[in-house]
Amino acid sequence: MYDMKILKKIFCFQFNFVALRNLARFLQYTLNKETIKRIQLINLIVMKLLNFPVALLVAFLTISVGQAQRFTKKKMYWALGGNISTSNYVGDIAPTTSNFSTDYSKTRYNLGGQAVRRFHPRMSARIGLNWIRLQGDDATSAKPGSDVAVFRYRRNLNFRNDLIEASAHILYDFLENRGAHNHRPRGFIPYLFAGVAVMYHSPKMKIDDKYVSLFPLKTEGTENGRAYSRVAFAIPFGLGVRKALTSRFDLSVEVNYRYCFTDELDDVSTTYPKDMFDRTGDALYASSGGTYALQKGKTTSGRSFNKEAAGPMGTIYVKSLGDGTYLVSETPLPGYTLFASGYAPVLSPVFDANGLPVLNGGQQVYTTGISNIKEKRGDPGWDHFFTIGASLSYIVNVGVKCPKFR
């Protein structure tokens, strides 16, 4: 009964935005599948009679109407849920410099909530809010024998960071679901997802059995240290698998990698602050690391020396010069005492402000901590992290009826 009306609307219709909207509504709410097929036939005639852009527009409307007829609003739904996951950090305080290197002994647990909107046979939109904890420690995370182990043992930094993350994702299912919520496939549905996220973070360091906020201490760079933003952005992406448990409950398991646009999740990025040697207390420890702070009299629990695997200097003897520096020998000499046997505490050569080695009686002077602020504190590359978790969702609204077209 609509055929002549449709012909009249297509050929007499003025293509402006208001009219296009009305036509789309008319088609969506009044046409059946048989009529859509006739529109497709009419479209072939339009391609011959009208210019190509108009024909493309009609084709797009036809396809959109077809999709709407097959996945109507009655089949769309909202689902609310919660998730629990584990998190692992990738950055400067990690076993190696690889973008996938992480210390699994520092795996931490996280909680979150989410809302999902099913709007397409294969696609859903998801928003989420998560609390995530990241952690790392040079003393335990550095890989013994690696090319960065000695540097990280000597740097001797640690951190813990609690993040509040808000995110939005688009999920794409590998298998179609054209049914209503109670006709969802009951098998396993693999899916991919990607999106955007914004995070608020504030790294802390453990000093004398308490966690001290690092942001106010300005631990890096410039004359008196530099500040950084505690708000960061990330691109989350990953894959998962979902299973319908009942007509309303879904269980999902997924891996979510966050590519972050910040290098300060661990408060380690570039160089030591220029005023580091003038600092005291927590500000000294946080910027320089435990080994240098110890030689300046700052006590720390259980962090006196980080141990490197036994090597050529597995057994060494030292002569203290009284200011936290030493002369080193591999054999016992008068005035020298046994410094280590079976492992080598971190000893590094001392350099002056011009980068020249400091000598005493023609011998190189060593220290257990940082000796030159020109040394790098970290690598200026972005930090990342990933989570592995499970979520349980409940479909809250079903059977929503579309309003009648008038």
Describe this structure in words.
There is one protein chain. Helices cover 21% and strands 36% of the residues. The two termini are 17 Å apart. The longest helix has 19 residues, at 52-70. The protein folds into 3 domains: 3-70, no CATH class; 74-270 and 379-397, Porin, CATH 2.40.160; 306-367, no CATH class. The protein has helices at residues 3-12, 17-30, 33-49, 52-70, 138-141, 149-155, 281-288, 290-295; strands at residues 77-90, 108-118, 123-137, 158-173, 188-200, 204-207, 210-213, 231-244, 249-260, 307-308, 315-320, 325-329, 337-341, 344-345, 348-349, 359-360, 363-364, 366-367, 384-397. The relative contact order is 0.14. Strands 1-2-3-4-5-8-9-19 form an 8-stranded antiparallel barrel. A 5-stranded antiparallel β-sheet has the order 13-11-12-18-15, with no helix packed on it. The protein contains 8 helices and 19 strands. By secondary structure, it is an alpha+beta fold. A hairpin with a 4-residue loop joins strand 8 (231-244) and strand 9.
